[in-house]
Amino acid sequence: GNSVTQMEGPVTLSEEAFLTINCTYTATGYPSLFWYVQYPGEGLQLLLKATKADDKGSNKGFEATYRKETTSFHLEKGSVQVSDSAVYFCARMDAGNNRKLIWGLGTSLAVNP
Amino acid sequence: DGGITQSPKYLFRKEGQNVTLSCEQNLNHDAMYWYRQDPGQGLRLIYYSQIVNDFQKGDIAEGYSVSREKKESFPLTVTSAQKNPTAFYLCASSIGGVGNTGELFFGEGSRLTVL
Prior knowledge:
The structure holds 2 protein chains of 2 kinds.
Chain A: E1 3-6, E2 11-14, E3 19-21, E4 23-26, E5 33-38, E6 44-50, E7 56-59, E8 62-65, E9 75-77, E10 86-93, E11 101-103, E12 107-112
Parallel strand pairs in A: 2-12
Antiparallel strand pairs in A: 1-4, 3-9, 5-6, 5-10, 7-8, 8-9, 10-11, 10-12
Chain B: E1 4-7, E2 10-13, E3 19-25, E4 31-38, E5 42-51, E6 54-57, E7 64-66, E8 76-78, E9 87-94, E10 105-106, E11 110-114
Parallel strand pairs in B: 2-11
Antiparallel strand pairs in B: 1-3, 3-8, 4-5, 4-9, 5-6, 7-8, 9-10, 9-11
């Protein structure tokens, strides 16, 4: 089927720890891939994206590389901060005419000082 | 500032009552979306509209209705037919059409509680 699977949370880290949130997808072809972030009490906002295989998206110290061999788009950050505490959503473009996004279930991250 | 405005931020409703959530955008986007967010279930698409006077059902449209009479506005009505309406509702917009890059712009959400 067509889906996006992300690692279950919650993820709890200490400040300055290394972060990885796994995301894999199933799809026909090579759809654009996204990471969105939702801070407490807010709507979502785009964190980064990659539109083709081997692209690396990056923003605010976060990175994710589009790996077609493993159909993955894992989110990484070398040193997390308390302000990174949020829910992170992986998504891919639905390549059909409706151009909707297909969403993962979200991964909650809590960073402790 | 350009963006999406949802109102009200918090809403309480008695069972059997319809309620309408407002969503307004000044980004000149063609496409607008309504999502429902429940703990552990991620985002589920309720309705979406790619152009004025047109809209399509999403994955969980039962018990909801929408209209798109103006480009800027996409109100969502939660009807009494919706069996479990307590949730966090998110409105979003995007450029839409062939120019759609997949970037959605979200409002801050409306939290509906049915008493």
